[in-house]
Design goal:
Length: 103
């Protein structure tokens, strides 16, 4: 498979003394073969127990909607959307969310 195009989104979020999560979605006008994954680019911890994690939390294809915590990501044909999730606790994180369109 060869990557013929890509979409990349940045996500920067977190909080101090609490837990927080946020998401971003990549949508496609017609079904495509994707390789989607999130890359943690940085974390600023407020406490020793600070954590941050990046997942693909949902993808949709011609068979329906698939939910879960997919890590490192998904490699799927006939995909129409991919949703990424970043979860933080006592931490601020920065991630690059990337989808390669394959042929």
């Amino acid at each position: 498979m060869t990557s013929v195009d890509f979409l990349e989104t940045g996500l920067y979020l977190g909080c101090i003394n609490c837990s927080f999560s946020g998401s971003a979605q990549h949508n496609f006008a017609s079904p495509v073969f994707v390789w989607s994954r999130g890359y943690l680019q940085g974390a600023s911890n407020n406490a020793d127990d600070g954590t941050v994690a990046v997942y693909v939390s949902q993808w949709k294809d011609n068979k329906g909607t698939h939910n879960g915590l997919f890590q490192p990501g998904v490699y799927q044909p006939n995909t129409t959307s991919v949703t990424f999730l970043m979860m933080t606790t006592d931490c601020i994180g920065m991630a690059a969310l990337r989808t390669d369109i394959l042929e």
